[in-house]
Amino acid sequence: MSSSNNLLTAFQEYLHINKALEVNSIKSYISDIRQFFDFFKEQDILKLQTTDIFSFLTQFENKRTLNRKLSSINAFYDFCHKLEFTNTNINIPMAKVPKNLPKYLSFEEIESALKAIDRSTLIGLRDYALILFLYASGCRISEALMAKREDINDGWLKIRFAKGQKERIVPLAPIAIEAVEVYLKEASMQSEYIWLNYRGTQLSRISAYKIVKTYLNVSPHVLRHSFASALILGGADLRVVQELLGHSSLETTQIYTHIQQENLAKTINEYHPLA
Asked: Which helix (H) or strand (E) holds 21?
């Protein structure tokens, strides 16, 4: 396995088959590694040392960009080591990045936007149901768009196309289920998928983004943050929220504890006589 093209192809297959990553994630990894290959040109990638890799990484001043490149490089060398293309398993620690609080909306903000939707049309019924569905389930937009009619059963939503293809089941609020049922009842288009465009084909990510942006002026992912934030502020256990969101690591979910702390501080400042 010598040429760069062969390594890239093998790595791509590994990400798809062994890691079961989504198409967009795989494209991002391959793009990063191709850039990494181009930087070293004719040098043997499998014989590089950590100091060599640092020379590539120093061009990225933004720590988030740096960590993304580093994540791809570490994954690539881990793959090469596992398949015994190299005896060296390079694993460079990530740069520390200040954690930003995820943007989220209050229930009142979402409720206000929902009331403004004209539900006298099929498109309005769909948009209303989609926003409720995202807020009630906390699923990623890619997961929502892959949802089929049969995936909603007895008050539960089966998410079969989760990140990394890990199946999970989450309870779905009755009001969201009712909104989906009303929309599907009015839709004459036949499809196994729930979310469709006006032509009756599967709704695209761009279209879903535009729908949420139109009514709430945020991306669909903010509704996922809003779902998690509402649970945390309501006192939900962090591990339960982790399970509902489909996070593989509790560390990913812990960012929402900052919202809880912020809310506690706000409460003291508002109501405590010494504040």
From this structure: none
DSSP H/E element including 23: helix 23-40
User: What pLDDT, in 10s, does the model give residues 51-77?
Assistant: 889 999 988 888 888 899 999 999 999
Pick the closest to residue 43 from 32, 31, 55 (CA basis): 55
Tell me how far apart the alpha carbons of residues 209 and 206 are, in angstroms, rounded to a whole number: 5
Residues β-bridged to residue 170: 157
| Cα 275 from Cα 262, distance rounded (Å) | 15
Sketch the domain layout of the chain as residue ranges.
Answer: 4-82, 107-268
Instruction: Establish whether domains 4-82 and 107-268 are of one fold.
Output: no
Kindly report the pTM of this predicted structure.
Answer: 0.66
Query: Given the structure tokens 């009630």, which residue do they identify?
Result: 136
**Topology annotation, domain 4-82:** DNA polymerase; domain 1 (1.10.150)
Structure tokens at 252: 């990913």
For residue 220, the number of C-alpha atoms closer than 13 Å in the C-beta half-sphere is 24
Amino acid (1-letter code) at residue 172: L
Supply the residues annotated as catalytic.
140, 163, 221, 224, 247, 256
Positions of E strands within the chain: 152-153, 156-159, 168-171
The fold of 107-268 is hpI Integrase; Chain A (1.10.443)
Which stretches of 41-173 are DSSP H helices?
50-57, 63-82, 107-115, 122-137, 141-145
What is the mean pLDDT, run by run of 10 residues, along the chain of 275 residues? Answer: 78 90 89 93 87 89 87 93 87 77 89 96 97 96 93 93 73 96 90 92 94 96 94 88 87 78 72 72
pLDDT digits (tens, 9 = 90+) for 170-190: 999 999 999 999 999 998 878
